[in-house]
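Supplementary Methods. Inverse-folding protocol.

Structures were first reduced to a discrete structure-token string of length 286. This string, shown here, constituted the complete conditioning input.
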């Protein structure tokens, strides 16, 4: 059986314990405060020594981390500077090949002499076309060898829609491509139109991609049974009289291109009459 460790036990009735109890009981208030103060001072010193050791270890760890972080920052800045210098050298070089793969936001690419083309204020002495300063002299008219006739002013209905004198010009200019599609005689076609496929298996066309030959589909002059008139077929639509024939053509053009407003129908009607009066191809077909 292990022996008990000897130590101070004031609860035991021994000469030593009685002496300690008597000495404590005989202390004055000042002695008690002095002993308590001394104990607190000794405990504070002990804690301070422990804190100093812990603080020294913590400071050493922080110094190591700061040194590593500084080294990493310096290396990264050095690598960025080298990359920026390479991009700048490529920027000022003659060739711009693959320069986009070394783009740097702090380089003023827009100020490079190859990017700044200036204003279109150089006038050709022969055809009076306006060009940029670095364009070849004979690019427009081969130094006067090519002479094109002046563009004639279009008929009043179309001219008013283009220059803004017609009351419906806002409607026309806002949907000018749709109005242009109303009067196309052929449809676009290609040997193969490439479509993209997303992750869900759905096909879509972000931009049109084709393979093979591009052509225009004319089709027959008359539609198949129970089929609406399309493209060139609309020009051959008739009626009981010229007014009803025009109304039938307007209905077909607006219906095929989803134009249902009164103003759009009026524009289509005016342009249809204009084409029948001035278009040479329509005069031949008549």
């Amino acid at each position: 059986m292990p022996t008990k460790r000897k130590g101070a036990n004031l609860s035991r009735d021994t000469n030593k314990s009685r002496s300690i109890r008597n000495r404590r009981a005989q202390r004055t208030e000042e002695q008690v405060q002095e002993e308590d103060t001394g104990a607190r001072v000794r405990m504070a010193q002990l804690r301070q020594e422990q804190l100093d050791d812990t603080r020294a270890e913590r400071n050493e760890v922080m110094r190591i981390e700061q040194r590593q972080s500084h080294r990493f920052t310096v290396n990264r800045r050095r690598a960025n500077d080298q990359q920026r210098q390479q991009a700048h050298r490529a920027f000022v070089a003659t060739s711009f090949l693959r320069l986009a793969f070394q783009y740097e936001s702090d380089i003023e690419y827009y100020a490079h002499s190859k990017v700044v083309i200036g204003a279109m204020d150089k006038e050709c002495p022969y055809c009076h076309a306006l060009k940029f300063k670095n364009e070849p002299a004979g690019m427009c008219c081969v130094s006067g060898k090519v002479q094109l006739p002046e563009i004639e002013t279009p008929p009043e209905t179309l001219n008013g829609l283009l220059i803004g004198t017609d009351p419906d010009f806002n409607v026309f200019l806002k949907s000018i491509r749709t109005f242009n599609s109303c009067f196309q005689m052929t449809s676009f076609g290609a040997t193969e139109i490439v479509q993209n496929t997303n992750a869900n298996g759905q096909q879509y066309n972000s931009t049109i991609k084709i393979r093979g030959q591009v052509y225009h589909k004319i089709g027959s002059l008359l539609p198949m049974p129970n089929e609406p008139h399309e493209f060139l077929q609309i020009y051959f639509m008739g009626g009981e009289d010229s007014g009803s024939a025009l109304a039938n053509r307007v209905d077909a053009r607006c219906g095929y291109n989803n134009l249902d407003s009164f103003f759009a129908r009026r524009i289509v009607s005016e342009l249809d009459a204009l084409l029948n009066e001035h278009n040479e191809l329509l005069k031949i077909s008549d």
